[in-house]
Amino acid sequence: MTTTITASVARAGIDEFQVEQLELEDPRPDEVLVRYIASGLCHTDLEAARGNVPTPRPVVLGHEGAGEVVAVGSAVTGFAAGDRVLLSLDSCGSCVNCLGGQPGYCDRHIPLNFHAARADGSVGLRDAAGKPVHDHFFGQSSHATHGLAHPRSLVKVDSRTPLEVLAPMGCGVITGAGAVLNSLRVQAGSTVAVFGAGAVGLSAVLAAVVAGAAQIIVVDRNAERLTLASELGATHLVDATEVDPAEAVRELTGGRGVDYSVESTGVLAVMNTAIAALAPLGAAAILGVTAPEAALQANVFELLKGRTVTGSVMGHQAPGVLIPRLLRLYEEGRFPVHRLVRTYPLAQINTAVADVKAGTTVKAVLTP
After folding, report:
1. Is residue 234 exposed (0-12), middle (13-18) or buried (19+ Cβ within 10 Å)?
2. Which residue among 177, 242, 251, 347 has its CA within the 20 to 30 Å range from the CA of 131?
3. pLDDT tens-digit profile of 32-54?
4. C-alpha angle with apex 152: 151 to 153, nearest 5 degrees?
């Protein structure tokens, strides 16, 4: 049996997403059928659409899904029809890192999340011509009205908070917040610099406020984003179009540099700046994704001052643990992630993409 769904399809050689009617298979024993109520639009989706990551096309993207379970396969436990769920990355569940509570570093992270197919290479979608369309992107392919998901991608949500507010927690929000709370373990009274005021960077700002950082410096080129950062708790703003960011950060910290820095732009030069802005014994978390051949350039003498540089993926904690942590903070009024969100109908996905690229929208969330 199949179900007719509406989905946004990225096709090779076509610049814009195509909203199409597709046929979706029933869930296999190890799959869950989800009706998507909302799905965030992430930078990784755009890179996959352009062919810059190892994801085959045509493909339905989306990896910040939120919705309701419609049906579960016979081998699925822990979920039932009617459950409200958020969706995040997929993982094998059996490698050393998965067993250690770090599925973001799963040994099979690339094939399970970027190859957009089941483990056996099959897909669950067909287009109007009967040709296969890749799905299972990050175990979900949520830029659609419905999709087949792997249970390891699902996090059950009891909160009645609107799912369009919570959807970005599946990737962008946990990436920024988790870097602060888990990778860097920012201490109360410390100094933090956040490079990039997009959804990831502003989520880092929200987490730095929760952590009790005394000085939160945000660096960006967009004046409206900087204003929003201030409203969310940033104590100092740096317009990178007007000053040298590293020098500005050092000046704001009395020449010392910051205890922690978070880079979220994916721009190599900014990554290097995030390291250069550190104080002795400072730590930088690199979150942005750049070309595979790109290399950081850090002054060795400066690193000998006890500086640490770390990568951080998907919050550096199992989404099933981190998402409920952030949801509790949101419900307490301490993590106002709704300030980042603007919703668009799925049919207007190309408008959402244009607004994100123009910087007028921080986090676009698609709704059916």
Report:
1. buried
2. 347
3. 999 999 999 999 999 999 999 99
4. 90
